[in-house]
Write a structure and sequence with these properties.
Number of helices: 11
Helix content: 40-55%
Structural class: alpha/beta
Oligomer: single chain
Distance between the termini: 22 Å
Number of strands: 8
CATH topology of the largest domain: Rossmann fold
Number of domains: 2
Keywords: Oxidoreductase
Protein name: 3-hydroxyacyl-CoA dehydrogenase NAD-bindingprotein
CATH superfamily of the largest domain: NAD(P)-binding Rossmann-like Domain
InterPro entries: 3-OHacyl-CoA_DH, 3-OHacyl-CoA_DH_NAD-bd, 3HC_DH_C, 6-PGluconate_DH-like_C_sf, 6PGD_dom2, NAD(P)-bd_dom_sf
Pathway: Lipid metabolism; butanoate metabolism
Shape: globular
Strand order of the largest sheet: 3-2-1-4-5-6-7-8
Pfam families: 3HCDH (PF00725), 3HCDH_N (PF02737)
């Protein structure tokens, strides 16, 4: 994915947060030929985000997904900042910070003040938080929409587009054109309900695997092997939870349970204890399985 295609009017993209999801979003935007500005909380975090994108681009070049020249050009289109005020000229800003409502609403309130373009789209990569709550943190809820990518962003083709009840039709059309045109992703439209489409289906499955482990019915290895070898899943549920991040899984489960009050959405005690212990999966090296830590 190294060239733009399709009809869209977005050329300057801002990404708030340079973690795994934010850096992936920044990478696919830079590879699509867009001017990308990523905001992080400090200079060290910003440097880490840049290294993360550079490492991913070099890996893609090694695998012949793009040329070395294309990787270098994409990196040149990426800039880092620690000041959200630098987003004044952005056509689109995608928020990709921690999956906590108070953090996200604070970001949106700030973006509402600093993004000057009257037609700018303010988007969230939230996995589960209703977009209405984020939109009403601004004075322009008609221009707020969910653009939910999946990890790893450069690899997985799906994006959930989530308009709220107040999202304008023009915002939805422009966002869809951007995602499918500039980024070449496949779009599914989701209603503004906690979990949207994918996580409303996925999270109960992951939580069922955690409960099975917690009850002693099977080991983590046997649970995962049962689904990979017996059901042809590419990854077992506990390995997938480790990939997503156990803190993220717990946050999505909590959001789903708060909205629906269904027991199948309630995070099991084992999951909550692991999050409290900092056993978050691949990003910490330990979760339901042990994982080698990468440098970026």
């Amino acid at each position: 994915m190294t060239s733009t295609h399709g009809n869209h009017d977005i050329q300057r993209v801002g990404v708030v947060g340079g973690g795994l999801m934010g850096s992936g979003i920044a990478e696919v935007c830079a590879r699509a030929g867009l001017d990308v500005l990523v905001a992080e909380s400090g200079t060290d975090a910003a440097a880490t985000a840049r290294i993360r994108v550079e490492t991913s681009l070099l890996r893609a070049a090694d695998r012949h997904k793009l040329t070395a020249e294309e990787a270098e050009a994409a990196l040149a289109r990426l800039r880092l900042t620690t000041d959200l005020g630098d987003f004044a000229d952005r056509d689109l800003v995608i928020e990709a910070v921690a999956e906590r409502e108070e953090v996200k609403t604070s970001v949106f309130a700030t973006l509402d003040k600093v993004v000057r373009r009257p037609d700018a789209i303010l988007a969230s990569n939230t996995s589960s938080i209703p977009l209405m709550r984020l939109g009403t943190a601004t004075t322009r809820p008609a221009q707020v929409i969910g653009i939910h990518f999946f990890n790893p962003v450069p690899v997985l083709p799906l994006v959930e587009l989530v308009p709220s009840l107040l999202t304008g039709e023009e915002t939805e059309e422009r966002a869809r054109a951007f995602v499918s045109g500039a980024l070449g992703k496949q779009v599914i439209l989701a209603t503004d309900r906690a979990g949207f489409v994918v996580n409303a289906l996925l999270i109960p499955y992951l939580l069922a695997a955690v409960r099975m482990l917690e009850s002693g019915a099977a080991t983590a290895a046997d649970i995962d092997n049962g689904m990979t070898l017996g059901c042809a899943h590419p990854m077992g549920p506990l390995a997938l939870a480790d990939l997503i991040g156990l803190d993220t899984v717990a946050a999505i489960a909590t959001s789903l349970y708060e909205e629906y009050k269904e027991p199948l959405y309630a995070p099991p005690p084992l999951l909550l204890r692991m999050v409290e212990a900092g056993l978050l999966g691949r990003k910490t090296g330990h979760g339901f399985h042990t994982h080698p830590l990468k440098s970026a």
